[in-house]
Structures are given as C-alpha cells and as structure tokens.
C-alpha cells in the first residue's frame, strides 16, 4: 500500500525544532521526517560498494534551516537521491536555487556546498528509496571516492515550472531529467475534485508524489500541502484525487538500480577545441562553449581559465579537472 503523509499529520515538535541559545528559544536547522526507514533496516549492519546491494528503505525529510545561511560542505551519498527546494532560496554548489528547483544526483556523485539564504532560509525536501549511511563529506571522503570502481557520477539541477491551474488536468514532462532506467520528473496541476493516475512506477526503483500546493484526497481524507506519497515499483499506478483547492505536484521516479558498468566516452567537441572533466562529479568544461555565465567567453582555452574558478556542481578546484579523450 502506498505511504501518504502530510505535514499537517505530524506532531508539532517534529515540524519546528527549537534550542535555547543565550536564554532565547531559537529555531534551529532540523529535519521534518515524513517517511523514514524501518528500525530493522536502519540498524542492520552492511557494508557495500554497490548501491544495488543497499536495502530498499524509502525516506522523505524536509530540512528547514532555522538559522539562515548555514553551510553544509560538499559531499556525496552512496545512493541515488532527489532534492527539491519547496520554500525559500539558497545555493547548491554555485547554482542559485528556489522553488521548485529539482536536483538529482546518482550514487557517488559529489555536490555542494549547500547554503540556505542568509535572510529567508529554505525548505529542502530530500527523497531516497534506499537506506542511506549518511553524507560522505569532503575533503575527508575524497580518497574513498577514488576507490569506487566503474563509478558513473551524474547530476542535474533544474528549475521546474508547474503549470497554472485551469479547468482540468495538466501533466508536463521534464525532459532534462530522464534516462532509460526509469528516471523521470513530471509537473502536475489538477483542478478541484479532478482525478487521474500517476505514471506507472514499475520501470524504476520507487516513485514519490509531492503535493506542493492545494490538497490531496486519500482514503477519504483530505491532506493539505506539503504532502508526500511513496509508491513501490510493484504497486499499481497511484490514484491522485485533487481536493477542494485543486493541487500542484511533482512526480519523481527513481531509476532502476543495476550493477555499475563502464560508460561510453563523451562525444567530441568542436574541431580544434578540447573538453575537460571534473574527476569527482564529471561536470565537463568545453573550450568551444566556454562559460559566459561565469565570465568565461566562448573559445576560452583551459589554460586561460582563472585558477580561482571552481566546478559549479561540486566546487572542486581547477586542479581536479582532467582531459577527456575525444
């Protein structure tokens, strides 16, 4: 049976965590847990180098930075992961993020640092389908990362626009976040009291439906946003019933988890130019394209890129890049 949890269903002390600082009750950064792994899975001892061997255990948690501007160092996880900015704003790596930016990272893909806005903070919703051993933070974990065989790092940060509400149902694909293993993201808008089925979850490793506005009716009860539903790959398509306000939602499907294999080389760039790739997260710098958004014009050779430049995804320095064979 699908798991459906609304923030309104959670106990108040789980939604806002306080700490007494200098005699004043102050909100602190903490996770509001919607869905957590069972105790049996969480305490099970296991050591593995392949995500395929990690236990299935869905997780959904909302990080709310009570102290805006708090910084989390660049790190990676041993499993696939989605993150969504549902409130506020901040930076992920050097990407400015705000609602509804979606970040997907494959297992063993470094990203960050993460920093909520110094004035408004943020609400960062993290979704996983397998048990997580915790963040592997840099620089301590850099040597561990280099030991992983046939690593296939990849990540994307994409701002998703949810369609404006109309008289019916609108379902839009996000083509940038998709692969042949079942990875996809859809944006959904539904008018009040309408019904539809979510896409078939059987092609992936689990599916989340995240209602960010409006309400969802499930088991004859109306759940206001923020509501999170988890659907196992073996379940039928999740039936979505919009409440009296209608709803806006994101549907996020995790890719199948298979043993890692060596991928094909990157396609070659324009004649006479070269590509450089981050050793850690595989972000590629193409000399033909440059990075105008960073003040690096098209056609800028790698040796002319300032040594102070860093990877926009994982913040690795210029020295952590290497030549791609083309």
Any key phrases for this structure?
mainly beta; 3 helices; 326 residues; single chain; 6-stranded antiparallel beta sheet
Structural features, described:
The chain has helices at residues 12-15, 39-43, 142-146, and strands spanning 3-6, 18-21, 24-27, 30-35, 56-64, 71-72, 75-76, 81-88, 90-92, 95-97, 101-105, 114-116, 122-130, 136-137, 155-159, 169-178, 184-190, 195-197, 207-218, 221-224, 227-231, 239-253, 275-278, 284-286, 321-323. It is mostly beta strands. The protein has 3 helices and 25 strands. The mean pLDDT is 85. The strands form 6 sheets. Strands 1, 16, 17, 18, 19, 20, 21 and 22 form an 8-stranded antiparallel beta sheet that branches. Strands 4-5-13-8-11-15 form a 6-stranded antiparallel beta sheet, with no helix packed on it. It has a 4-stranded antiparallel beta sheet with strand order 6-12-9-10, with no helix packed on it.
Describe this structure in a few short sentences.
The chain has 326 residues and is mainly beta.
What is the percent of helical residues? under 10%
User: So how many helices?
Assistant: 3
The stretches of 5 or more residues where confidence is low (pLDDT under 50) are: none
- What structural class do helix, strand and pairing data support? mainly beta
Tell me, briefly, the overall form: globular
User: What is the number of E strands?
Assistant: 25
| Series of secondary-structure elements, N-terminal to C-terminal | EHEEEHEEEEEEEEEEHEEEEEEEEEEE
From the alpha-carbon coordinates, what is the Rg to the nearest angstrom? 21 Å
Gap between N and C termini, in Å? Answer: 49 Å
- Mean pLDDT value: 85
Strand content: 35-45%
Major sheet details: 8 strands, antiparallel
